[in-house]
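Summary of Year 1 activities. Much of the first year was spent building the evaluation harness for sequence design. The harness presents a backbone, in tokenized form, and records the residue chosen at every position. We chose the following record to illustrate the format because it has been used consistently in internal testing since the harness was completed.
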């Protein structure tokens, strides 16, 4: 068996220990005589998985008591619609900070539901940064401000969040959730497709203030109603059992690593290795993100030519560094270095970058 260093953006690398555990208990999960793929979502064995997963995530986030955690299906993309359907009510305006193609998609879904405005956009500059907190000015009668915490395709990330003065702040944290501590209490609702940083495809983690999701319109499609999902504890219908089970294992693995404080330290170290290479040879490795907005999850850059970019991804692959090709919409190179990417993987990539630079500068 040979496993590569997997720099894919999502679905993405999972901790090897987690995969080994899954493999070991696949045929007989928790003495049920069945695999996790075959058990009822209403069985005590799964209830325990769900309960522990929520508890471990709450613990990792130091989540205040008045927040609830639940899982939904439909990917991050369904959340783009759920948010306005739940919260963009008559007479209100939704505010969006447009920092990448996923933010723009979220905005477009909101426009279908009601009045939505962009209060910031870095689109004209190729989405090179996120706003500084003071740059975001909200409209009158604002339903909520929606931000994308980490822009997976463009490689930018918020490290300081806008001040909303009581207007609910909603974030898509699909690609950075549980990578570092952050002030959860600033947010009314957070959603995160789990397949980037904490699990396989199939589930979305939602963290919401209970009073914020209470009192939703009964006419909402039930599968999009946050209040129902929270009240029914992710079990209104069959949830993505397997994905939740893996998230639970990843949460336990994160606790074992020392929690989010420890993850932040190693994630910053990993990112610094790669950004250090960009800063050493800025004419060859051209970073896409402004320095202040550099993501510690997705490192994006261009080489002098498309041919060199293709060669870089190809040679990397041959060395066991997979998934370096940038998103099809923007090209270039992207190294996704989520929680499960070991420091060693970034050291190998930095070494390769230096050699590639020396050979092709
Ligand atoms: C991947 C991603 C999405 C879309 O997720 P799907 O599960 O493919 O719908 C949305 N937002 C961000 C920030 C992402 O990284």
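For this record, the design step produced the sequence shown next.
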């Amino acid at each position: 068996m040979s496993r590569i260093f997997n720099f894919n953006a999502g679905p993405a690398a999972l901790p090897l220990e987690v995969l080994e555990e899954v493999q070991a208990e696949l045929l007989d999960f928790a003495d049920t005589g069945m695999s996790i793929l075959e058990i009822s979502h209403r069985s005590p064995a799964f209830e325990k998985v769900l309960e522990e997963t929520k508890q471990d995530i709450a613990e990792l986030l130091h989540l205040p008591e008045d927040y609830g955690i639940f899982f939904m299906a439909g990917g991050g993309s369904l959340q783009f619609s759920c948010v306005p359907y739940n919260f963009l009510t008559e007479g209100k305006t939704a505010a969006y900070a447009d920092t990448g193609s996923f933010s723009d998609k979220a905005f477009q879904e909101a426009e279908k539901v009601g009045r939505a405005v962009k209060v910031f956009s870095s689109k004209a500059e190729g989405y090179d940064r996120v706003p500084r907190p003071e740059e975001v000015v909200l409209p009158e009668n604002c339903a909520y401000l929606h931000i994308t915490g980490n822009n997976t395709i463009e490689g930018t990330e918020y490290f300081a969040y806008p001040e909303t003065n009581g207007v609910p702040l909603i974030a898509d944290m699909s690609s950075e959730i549980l990578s570092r501590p952050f002030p959860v209490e600033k947010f009314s609702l957070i959603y995160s497709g789990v397949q980037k940083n904490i699990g396989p495809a199939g589930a979305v983690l939602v963290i919401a203030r209970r009073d914020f999701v209470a009192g939703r319109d009964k006419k909402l499609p039930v599968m999009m109603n946050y209040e129902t999902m929270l009240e029914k504890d992710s079990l209104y219908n069959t949830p993505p059992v397997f994905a939740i089970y893996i998230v639970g294992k990843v949460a336990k693995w994160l606790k074992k690593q020392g929690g989010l404080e420890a993850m932040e330290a190693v994630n910053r170290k990993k990112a610094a290795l790669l950004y250090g290479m960009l800063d050493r040879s800025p004419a060859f490795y051209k970073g896409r993100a402004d320095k202040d907005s550099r993501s510690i999850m997705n490192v994006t850059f261009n080489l002098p030519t498309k041919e060199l970019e293709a060669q870089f991804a190809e040679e990397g692959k041959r060395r066991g560094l997979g998934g370096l090709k940038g998103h099809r919409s923007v090209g270039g190179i992207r190294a996704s270095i989520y929680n499960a990417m070991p420091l060693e993987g970034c050291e190998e990539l930095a070494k390769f970058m230096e050699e590639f630079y020396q050979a092709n500068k």
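The first strand starts at residue 5 and ends at 6. Quantitative recovery figures across the full test set are reported in Table 2.
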